[in-house]
Amino acid sequence: MEKMKAWIFEEYKDADGNVRGDSVLKEIDKPVAGPDDAILKVNVAAICGGDVGCFNHGGASHKVFSGKEWGHEMSATIVELGENVKDLKVGDRVWPFPYYCEPNGMKAGALGGFSEYVLVQNAKKDYNLFSLDGMSDLMGALLEPFLVGFRAANNANPGPGKKAVVFGCGMIGMSAAITLASCGCDEVIVVGRREYKLSVAKKLGFKTFTTLDDDWKDQLREYLGPRKAVSRQGVDAMCWVEATADEEIIGDISTIMPERSNLTIVAAHQKPICFNPAFLTFNEMKISGSQAFLQTDVAPGMELLKSTPYDILQICGYVCKQEELKKGIELMREGKITKAVIDYTGKLSI
Fold it and tell me: Are strands 3-13 and 19-29 parallel, antiparallel or unpaired?
């Protein structure tokens, strides 16, 4: 049987009994298409912040399973189709919608982007495989996290006459900021901690603040202006997006959100969050979660990604070979880059 190289995720417990993750590059059987399936050759795979989190605390919350392939942000080319698949053809460049690439959706985080080839069951155009016409392989690999930020931003009820604040300047935070700007928000602010990531946000044209400054709330209020809030510390911004996974930041945000403002939490938090519900009650704030995205988000999200004046490719800080996956993860974990990508084509440069 034909073989391929694939990274296999493995969980273990450290000396303190905490669940951690690792990955081993192995040679395994290349998948074979059934009559309704497609085989994709991966062109570019991006490392998700959730993939980094799998190393930090295990893969359960990201649907990544020990002993299985993983990686889900990718662009690919169809190299084999089952006899019943009529609306796609070999040679098509596509983006796979992770959740719908397997009947039960449980392969979402473990689709196999860190493998050379990927099996997509029940392959259907505009259902689990979308054409990348007009998009580069690199942009296609960024589409999945962009759509996460796209939906989170729209959940914050953006529009003209409103100001917005995004906490977190990783890929999802920056995607949310770009979406908020495209929705007509008068101003979009990005708040973060990592110096490198903040520098990328500035290059994209966003005003930034850092929570490393003790008076960052005052700075934000002075810049955007005050707005009525029960705390009397309200900042004039009606749209808020949290993409940091910092358990303390929710409490901080709740103290400065003004009356009838909206907060979308898109970060994958691992611990309980505490905040004073009085701010929620008396400000009539709305807090919503935004885990991923829907099929209805794909078409408008793709169009925005293709048309936005913001050069989102600047978010990519490192291109590596398949064998260098763990180096890319470590660079992201250390905050030295925002996003690392694996180039299977040998042609990518950023």
Answer: antiparallel
